[in-house]
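Try this one yourself first.
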């Protein structure tokens, strides 16, 4: 892409580690990172702060940078009237959340890039999202907004300060989530049923998913439906829930949201058919979807779902993995179409022109109808059209004109029949085409890779590898999960303070670097890492992971628990630059930490005998009780946890030698059954081991007739011993 030019400007972001902040280091804007230096300068010079929040795979963030932040003239206005701060929302979700709450409350919508004007003591008084640079018929341009706000600050500063104080008080009041009076956890059955009905109403019968467009993968909805099915197996509603989840996962895997050449899933679909996506690929989607497709395989036994799991994990291992074991955050949507292009385009790396495919796949196909080429078969199967298959309505900037987004339009059986081929022969042909196209694509300039490594998202990905390893009986996936957990322990955990760190970065020569002042872990980092360690213990039976998980749970309680209103705050106390301590109340692209932590606490209690944790789980459900009863569809993961709380977890204890064949067979049986309320542990007879120290009742369990034996326990009271795998399978169902 164009010859490298010597930058005219360099600002303080050059010293940061975040790839997103570094992208702005040569803007003519005098950017500061979030921190005391900028706050002090605003106070000394009595200037308002302009805060811009974004992230590296955000398309409109790139647009606003190109149009406004790279403009010398706009840069001069910004530098003259404001102290300008740039924040990567993935590094600082705490800062993002406070000001997003303000922008949503005052404008009715939020998003990124987020543009907020603050007083020198960080109180917001004006805000919005993307601004085009110049005025248009229907909008005010960024330059005008900057000049108007600068003018207001000079003329009406006191009125601005007063209104910002009022807004802040209102936000403090409306964003509070707490127990009022003597609330107890809401009734599980009603909450589950209401959530199911609400999901049914938004479900798309034809294409799966839960909205018309845009369409997001929403793993939290699928996870809820699997649990709903498991607890209502014999009812028509249960069957319907399972059908909704499996159909959605199938349609996504066939769709253009799934990268049929390079594996993995894009962020979301712009249309109802899962066809034309926004092309960025996020680590948190890969981690959660690997877990969902693993569950779909566990439940249905359909190899189709296992293949999708392998596809996702291949992509992550190849393209999002640091050689030291951590996982990178994301790949961008925009890239240069060719090595000589001057301008990036959305999707350029992923889309195909029909003539390009014909040129790459010219070989005649043996045994097919006369004159059929590989290209004909491939293009028919993946819905390729000569003039391109993207609806112009979904391509407002004509970036995809004449191009095709691959989408499996037919079943393999139909495509095979159409060309007179056997299904097995077709599979081999499509695989050959994919390999060829993958090599061709490797010649294109790759999209930008965000090599920031986040504890929370690594936790979600470790869970994906661990659950896949257990469900598919693939030891390699479990080892990859363990390698990533060891990476977290080395690079994102401070053994002196016992605390997690939020992020680290790929440095020069592939080293792992930390910022000068490391960012401390947030609630989501603890919650997703603890969940990952429990999943990893169940897949690997290495007790060290359990021990670390319980340590982190104690630390989470200490840093984030709200003793007055119950549940956990997203951030710890004591940061003067954060105006609000909030609790998230929505399961979105990622589940909200309070939802996952309910199940974590119940698992922690099962492994430790520490019953205070069960009580805490109940208190969280009580704090969210009103929302769970009225609009449970906003918290499907917490609804699921409500059911687990009421059904009590089953401790499935296997007594046996972990290396023995009989133990392995029993473990394989336990791992192959989807049961949302089971916790697995192995009592290997090592009475000095961590689990025996935590749970004295294990000492009374023994092998029957010298064979591996399972006990199913509830609240530390155990069933009769079971040595038959068949019998055990029946007992594991809820």
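Now uncover the answer:
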């Amino acid at each position: 892409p164009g010859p490298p030019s010597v930058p005219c400007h360099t600002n303080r972001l050059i010293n940061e580690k975040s790839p997103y902040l570094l992208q702005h280091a040569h803007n003519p804007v005098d950017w500061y990172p979030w921190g005391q230096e900028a706050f002090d300068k605003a106070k000394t010079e009595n200037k308002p702060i302009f805060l811009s929040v974004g992230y590296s795979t955000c398309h409109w963030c790139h647009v606003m940078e190109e149009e406004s932040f790279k403009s010398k003239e706009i840069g001069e206005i910004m530098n003259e009237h404001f102290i300008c701060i740039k924040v990567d929302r993935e590094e600082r979700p705490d800062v993002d959340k406070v000001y997003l709450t303000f922008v949503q409350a005052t404008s009715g919508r939020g998003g990124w890039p987020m543009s907020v004007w603050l007083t020198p003591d960080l109180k917001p008084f004006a805000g919005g999202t993307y601004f085009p640079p110049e005025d248009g018929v229907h909008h005010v341009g960024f330059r005008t907004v900057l000049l108007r706000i600068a003018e207001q600050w000079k003329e009406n500063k006191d009125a601005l300060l007063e209104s910002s104080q009022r807004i802040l008080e209102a936000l403090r009041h409306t964003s509070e989530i707490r127990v009022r009076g003597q609330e107890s956890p809401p009734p599980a059955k009603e909450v589950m049923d209401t959530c199911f009905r609400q999901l049914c109403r938004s479900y798309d019968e034809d294409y799966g998913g839960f909205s018309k467009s845009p369409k997001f993968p929403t793993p939290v909805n699928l996870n809820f439906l699997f649990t709903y099915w498991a607890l209502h197996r014999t009812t028509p509603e249960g069957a319907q829930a399972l059908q909704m989840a499996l159909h959605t996962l199938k349609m996504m895997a066939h769709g253009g949201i799934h990268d049929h050449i390079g594996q993995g899933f894009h962020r979301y679909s712009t249309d109802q058919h899962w066809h034309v996506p926004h092309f960025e690929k996020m680590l948190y989607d890969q981690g959660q979807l690997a877990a969902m497709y693993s569950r779909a395989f566990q439940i249905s036994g359909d190899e189709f779902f296992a293949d999708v799991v392998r596809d996702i994990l291949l992509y992550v291992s190849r393209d999002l993995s640091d050689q030291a074991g951590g996982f990178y955050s994301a790949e961008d949507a925009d890239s240069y179409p060719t090595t000589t292009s001057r301008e990036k385009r959305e999707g350029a790396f992923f889309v195909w022109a029909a003539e390009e495919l014909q040129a790459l796949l010219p070989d005649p196909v043996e045994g097919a109808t006369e004159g059929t080429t590989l290209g004909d078969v491939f293009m028919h199967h993946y819905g390729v059209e000569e003039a391109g298959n993207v609806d112009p309505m979904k391509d407002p900037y004509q970036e995809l004109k004449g191009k095709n987004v691959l989408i499996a339009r037919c079943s393999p059986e139909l495509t095979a029949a159409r060309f007179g081929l056997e299904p097995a022969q077709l599979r081999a042909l499509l695989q050959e085409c994919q390999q060829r196209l993958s090599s061709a694509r490797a010649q294109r300039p790759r999209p930008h890779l965000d090599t920031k490594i986040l504890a929370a998202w690594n936790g979600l990905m470790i869970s994906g590898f661990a659950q896949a390893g257990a469900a598919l009986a693939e030891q390699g996936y479990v080892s990859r999960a363990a390698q990533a957990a060891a990476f977290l322990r080395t690079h994102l955990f401070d053994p002196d303070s016992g605390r997690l760190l939020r992020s680290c970065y790929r440095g020069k020569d592939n080293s792992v670097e930390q910022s000068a002042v490391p960012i401390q872990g947030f609630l989501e980092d603890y919650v997703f890492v603890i969940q990952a360690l429990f999943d990893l213990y169940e897949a690997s039976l290495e007790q060290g992971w359990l021990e670390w998980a319980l340590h982190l749970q104690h630390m989470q309680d200490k840093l984030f628990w709200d003793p007055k209103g119950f549940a956990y705050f997203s951030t710890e106390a004591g940061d003067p630059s954060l105006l609000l301590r909030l609790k998230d109340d929505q399961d979105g692209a990622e589940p909200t930490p309070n939802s996952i932590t309910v199940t974590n606490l119940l698992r922690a209690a099962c492994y430790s005998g520490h019953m205070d944790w069960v009580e805490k789980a109940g208190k969280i459900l009580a704090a969210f009780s009103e929302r769970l009863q009225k609009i449970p569809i906003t918290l499907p993961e917490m609804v699921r946890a409500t059911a687990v709380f009421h059904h009590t977890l089953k401790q499935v204890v296997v007594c046996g030698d972990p290396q023995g064949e009989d133990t392995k067979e029993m473990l394989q049986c336990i791992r192959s059954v989807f049961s949302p309320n089971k916790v697995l542990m192995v009592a290997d007879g090592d009475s000095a081991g961590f689990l025996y120290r935590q749970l004295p009742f294990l000492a009374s369990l023994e092998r029957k007739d010298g064979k591996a034996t399972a006990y199913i326990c509830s609240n530390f009271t155990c069933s009769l011993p079971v040595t038959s795998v068949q019998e055990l399978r029946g007992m594991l169902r809820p």
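Discussion: The chain has a mean pLDDT of 96. Residues 96 and 360 are 46 Å apart (CA to CA).
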